[in-house]
Design a protein that fits this description.
The complex is a heterodimer of chains A (260) and B (330). By secondary structure, chain A is an all-alpha fold. Chain A has 10 helices and no strands. The longest helix of chain A has 32 residues, at 138-169. Chain B is elongated. The two termini of chain B are 42 Å apart. The chains are: A mainly alpha (260), B alpha/beta (330).
């Protein structure tokens, strides 16, 4: 029975996502622009892999859309609060944990959809997939693809959880801008999405290593263009950990939310 | 068993006492009204009883379930229509109802049947499959009432169900509320600041002001408390008429506000000539005289010295509140 509750919540998120056309276009626009206007810039990477900058950038932009979309989906709890719908959910005989789970899975689904969209779009723009091995093979492609999807899901879980956690503590939209500018943007910029980590000065590199998205982007590069810096197993382990932590935090904080 | 029981229930927000030691007993199947101006504490009381917020002190139970300890049981047996809309405007009417039904664990078959039933009840069958963006305020309200009923609640909370609706829609909604109370046997707890609404619908009414219940009885008995007609006299503003009127032994009570004097008088129409004459002799010009049969407004006026309709705009009351909350903080 709990499953059908999660399904109801999930279904609502997905329906809303596809019905709000202007929001959908708006959220895809920024990563597409990044891909187009940065991807074709004459940037030479120190250890240029064969694909050039576009191939390096595309996994980073996929990480970016996952970050933005899942944070946004998590924070949409605040929208529900503001527009009254959360009250409807909160007076129903449904455990708070179920609500968090439904919301999170809905957020991950919509973020995943956008990430795959960017991935497909990047192919004609010059993303040269190699799969998980530097020497392309059919098996490597497939393994790489599914591994990439797994990374996308874990990134989505981590940041949807974080979004729900923040939204549970915020009363109105005042805090939204703050979270976006002082958390989401730095997470994006220090994740190595745009440049290799070793171009950063030493002190900044420490920051990149406490950033979950770093491991996500590295994992995506490993599975799509066989160019990860860290072992993929480490990337997976870290993201699995952060997913569990942020969702537990979201559940904890959401349970303590009062709606008025 | 009572549908709702509260004992000395208190809810405080910082220094503001929103619900002040409220004790209530609401019977099964009753259509119970809570009448009071905006900010009197009606919505807060509804939120405490529906488990959305926790009371500061006191005790409350709904259908025998403690609202503090048995939240899920309470949630299962109540339906609520909030004062502010709580619908998803990206979903259709039917989808909103379906979401609700799923949240209450209704089976597919039951869900389908019940959705059609409640849509029929509020006349929305034809609009069921369009998105709420295209609904009028009245339609949204009706949909929310339908939704409140979906899962056969024992107790239905209606918080200002006709707020901001036109007269015709309001009438319709009153009829729905009556019908569902009669047909489905739902206990209704209605919160309103429209006295006609409380008067028309409710078996019993509690009048609430500043978080306190100041009177509780059937509409008839409440009006009998005022006893007589209310005569409102508007003068040119010169002082003195109030004192003159106080001198008449047939004036039961008197209230003066913004140059309008309200007096309570038996057989008011026979006293109007005397009032005009008294004013004339004192050199005070009467601009208008207005006679009302006793209504709940008169009851509210008698107990509080204010009118319900003063609402938020009343600076005096807001000032009083501010001062009080300031005092509490210190």
């Amino acid at each position: 029975m709990e499953i059908s509750l999660v399904y109801a919540l999930w279904l609502r998120e997905v329906k809303r996502f596809f019905r709000m056309k202007s929001r959908l276009v708006g959220s895809l626009a920024m990563p597409v622009f990044f891909l187009i206007f940065l991807g074709f810039a004459p940037i030479r990477l120190p250890d240029a892999s064969d694909g050039g900058y576009m191939s390096f950038l595309a996994p980073g932009i996929i990480g970016m859309i996952l970050l933005f979309a899942s944070m946004g989906a998590g924070i949409s709890v605040l929208w529900d609060k503001q527009f009254g719908f959360l009250k409807e959910i909160m007076v129903a005989p449904v455990s708070r944990h179920t609500i968090v789970l439904g919301k999170t899975l809905g957020g991950v689904t919509t973020a995943l959809f956008q990430a795959v969209f960017i991935l497909v779009l990047a192919l004609p723009l010059g993303l040269e997939l190699t799969g998980i091995n530097a020497q392309p093979s059919l098996g490597g492609y497939w393994l790489g693809f599914w591994l990439a999807v797994l990374f996308m899901i874990l990134i989505g879980l981590t940041f949807t959880g974080l979004g729900v956690a923040f939204a549970s503590r915020m009363k109105d939209f005042q805090g939204f801008q703050f979270v976006w500018n002082f958390l989401v943007m730095p997470v994006f910029l220090t994740s190595g999405a745009l440049f290799p980590l070793d171009v950063f000065p030493q002190w900044l590199q420490y920051l990149t290593y406490v950033n979950p998205l770093t491991y996500g982007v590295d994992g995506l590069r490993g599975s799509l263009i066989a160019a990860s810096v860290l072992p993929l197993s480490l990337d997976l382990a870290v993201l699995l950990g952060t997913s569990i932590i942020t969702i537990a935090l979201a559940a904890y904080l959401f349970t303590r939310t009062e709606v008025d | 068993m009572k549908a709702i029981t509260t004992k000395e229930l208190v809810k405080r927000f910082g220094g503001l006492v929103a619900v002040d030691s409220v004790s209530l007993d609401i019977e099964e199947g009753e259509l119970f009204g809570m009448l009071g101006p905006n900010g009197a504490g009606k919505t807060t009381l509804a939120k405490v009883l529906s488990t959305l917020i926790r009371p500061t002190s006191g005790y409350a139970e709904v259908w025998g379930n403690d609202v503090m300890r048995k939240q899920d049981e309470v949630r299962r047996c109540i339906g609520i229509v909030f004062q502010d809309p709580a619908l998803d405007d990206q979903l259709t009417g039917r989808e909103n109802l379906d979401f609700h039904a799923r949240m209450y664990g209704m089976s597919t078959l039951l869900r389908k049947r019940r959705i059609d039933e409640v849509l029929e009840l509020v006349d929305l069958t034809e609009k069921a499959d369009i998105r709420l963006e295209a609904y009028s305020g009245g339609m949204q309200r009706r949909l929310e009432i339908a939704r409140g009923l979906m899962h056969h609640p024992k107790v239905l909370f209606l918080d200002e169900p006709t707020l901001g609706l036109d007269v015709q829609t309001r009438r319709h909604i009153w009829e729905y509320i009556e019908e569902l109370n009669r047909k489905e046997g739902v206990t209704v707890f209605l919160m309103t600041h429209y006295m006609e609404e409380a008067d028309y619908l409710c078996d019993r009414i509690a009048i609430i002001d500043d978080g306190k219940i100041i009177a509780l009885d059937t509409p008839q008995n409440l009006k009998h408390m005022v006893g007589a007609d209310v005569v409102s006299i508007e003068t040119d503003g010169r002082e003195g008429l109030a004192n003159l009127l106080r001198g008449f032994n047939w004036v039961e009570w008197l209230n003066e506000q913004n140059g309008v004097i309200d007096i309570s008088v038996k057989d008011g129409h026979t006293r109007i000539p005397e009032i005009v004459l008294a004013a004339h002799e004192a050199g005070i010009k009467v601009k208008s005289i207005n006679l009302r049969e006793p209504d709940l407004e008169a009851v509210f006026l008698k107990f509080t010295g204010r009118k319900i309709r003063e609402e938020e705009g009343d600076s005096r009351q807001q000032m009083r509140r501010m001062v009080r909350s300031f005092r509490m903080r210190r």
